[in-house]
Write a structure and sequence with these properties.
With about 100 residues, this protein is mostly helical. Helices cover about 80% and strands about 0% of the residues. The longest helix is centred in the first third of the chain and has 30 residues. The protein is elongated, with a radius of gyration of 15 Å.
Length: about 100
């Protein structure tokens, strides 16, 4: 299966990398809010978080696709890996609560 994602311009990549730390932090906060909503069985609050979470996931997923093509991966991206892995764990935890 051929990957159809186009390579970004250097400027687009640098802009995405500059936004990534804040996006990662925002995703972590969103996942914590989602967890609290699920614990309280507040499905309205849970649903309200979905658009922002999905937007963050899309942006970070696109950046991840770009970064895997670079050798070595940008330092900013490498530095975000632990936080992104924790986000993945929190996402999986939230899925189990559903």
């Amino acid at each position: 299966m051929e990957n159809t994602l186009q390579s970004p311009s250097e400027q687009a990549l640098q802009q995405a990398l500059a936004l990534a730390p804040q996006q990662t932090e925002s995703l972590a906060q969103c996942l914590e809010q989602e967890f609290e909503a699920l614990k309280q069985r507040d499905l309205d609050a849970f649903e309200a978080l979905q658009p922002a979470k999905n937007e963050l996931l899309q942006a970070l997923s696109t950046l991840a696709e770009w970064c895997v093509r670079l050798e070595p991966a940008p330092e900013v991206w490498q530095g975000l890996r632990p936080a992104l892995l924790q986000c993945r764990e929190n996402h999986l935890r939230n899925i189990q609560l559903l």
